[in-house]
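Page 47, continued from p. 46.
Same chain as before, 427 aa.
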Amino acid sequence: MNSEIIQKEIHVNDKIYAIKLYINRKNINFELQSPEKNYSNSFSLDDLKKIYNLFFRDCEDINGAFLDFEELLEEKLSIEEENGFINFIIHRKKKNITFPLIENEEEEIKINYDSLTKEMKEIISKNELILGIDFGTTNSCASVILDDKIIVIENSLGQITTPSFVLFLEDNKVCAGELAKLQPSYEENIIYNIKRLIGRNYYEYRFNSMKKNFVFKITKGKILNLLNIQISDKNYYPEQITAMILKKIIYDSEYYLSLLLEKEIKINNAVITVPAYFNEEERNSILNAAKIIDLKVKKILDEPAAASLTYLYQNKINVEKYIIVIDFGGGTLDLTLLYLRQTKEYSYVDIILKGGDSNFGGEDFDNIIMDQCILSLKNEEKLLDKDKILFKNVRLKRACENAKIKLSKTEKTRIFIEEYLPSIRGF
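Result:
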């Protein structure tokens, strides 16, 4: 496939960076070499065109994309380093353009189609490969088993987890994943934590206790008082938002496996994990979301059971014992007591007891930090209560999340909020 290459050296934050871009009809491969480390990622031209709506006059026109990018690199540039990745930012008057780049450190998976067994090749040829999907509150991931190897899927940005975010753009365009999470210009149209809303009733106590943490508008649906997500003049059920995230995971999985095996791969089947405490309505809502994108769900599997089965599969030992699985995730803290038994012939997992708090995950730590930020702002600026929502935005939420991550390694950190309220210097 024909491609254009852009190479440029830039000076940012007193450092010299080398940029190399490979642009073809579908993607931009972005490489950034810093004095210490190398970073890279691949971006879909179609996704970038949807989000920024200003470059790539024609995605089929390689030269057009090439010229647009050369012009963009003449704009003001900045680089933000955080938590193992870099945000490369092109500053424009109307809207900044952000490219998240991942540090190059993963080992290459040594597997190819010819090395697979006859049985596995037959499964692939019949499009019967089953994808395991961990649909999470804040992030989701996927994996498959090819013969006896567990393959963790990398998304289009080279990451093994995909933020469970959906962004609604103009003209009914939709974007899911990391690029959706990083667009502050559209913060009221960014949907997140949908796992906490799926299968819930508008008058349910659990929903009412957490709805203050959502920026987007949630209304009462016409059917059984279920929740509606309102974007502009349209309403969406949580199942529809969930389907968009699942579709993103399927697309990335097909693309990744096709590159890995050098053969076109189609995913029609999946096993989806859910918290052990999920009730019948919540589980059925996951199934309904999969039906929207014609994804056949072979099984809804409890997350602690999935963890136990993985342990048994990887160790391949005869065992009979009770274990406790503690799952401290983005949305929940769960504790489950399970009975395990494995022989040469079969593996058996039984959930004995389960419990936890569906509002005590990493996301809730972010919300506590954000509430403290808003309280400090209110005290210093004498803001009215109605003004609180102005600061419950996605940019502040991301800053609080980064602060939480830093606090895992240090006792103190600072959140600077000049871009949220110019009159405040920081605290």
